Amino acid sequence: MDLERLQPKLFNEFKAILQSDRMNHAYLFSGDFASFEMSLYLAQSRFCDNLQDKLPCGHCRSCHLIEKREFTDLKIVEPTGQIIKTDTIKSLMREFSSSGFEGSAQVFIIRDCEKMHPNAANSLLKFIEEPQSSSYMILLTSDESKVLPTIKSRTQIFHFPKNKELLMEQAQQAGLLKSQAETMAELASSPQNLQELLQNKKNLDLLQVCQRFTGILLKKSEDVYLEVGRLVQVVPEKADQDLVFKILTILLAKDKEVRQARTYLQALYQARLMWQSNVSFQNAIEYMVIS
Ligand SMILES: [Zn+2]
Fold this sequence. Notes:
59% of the residues lie in helices and 9% in strands. It contains 15 helices and 5 strands.
């Protein structure tokens, strides 16, 4: 899917930035929705062989190689497991200074940059403060609150909001009813993630079970205890239980003007914390219902 549809507003902003030669040397992109695609687009704008009005053509050899992430002067760093190793960043910085010396352009993209060790983050600061004229650094994060303040204060920050309308459209095109499409759009983090969620029929079944459950819960019917049993039975797996917590949160939040729903939402939050610290799924859900 193209950037123009994924992030129409930001796409126009960045087009204007490129056309007036105002691209910065260090950006922080906060939010997952198409931020990586945007960083590739910016990289293309540095290396495209056939710029059109200062914008990348998207078709030349360089543009293709960048899209496939096989372009030599584009370096992409991703965490291995839960961290980005300090050594990885240090060797990146060495390349940086040598590229600056040779005067060739380089673009560095660091995904999940909040997973850098503070030492690694600090070694980036020098670059950010004294950029080489043809080097660019784009940091991506889905959790801005965990990015070091020293990084945030030295980069230009752009927020990449989730395009819910687009996801809803996608879910409805896949045959979901409007209310289900809404919930799935809330749940999904990207068009690709939504597609994965929709491909697994079990997720749609879970959604239905959860809709039924919250319906009965908010009616304050005695049947709700029976319903807890049913819910627990369909999700023996931890991963599915996690999904149920997410779906229930979305469903209750939708009704949050109802006082009852607000109370349950708070209890659900507690229940999820309990479950995360190894209380059984059944006990956690029962705790929520009793609240
Ligand atoms: Zn091109």
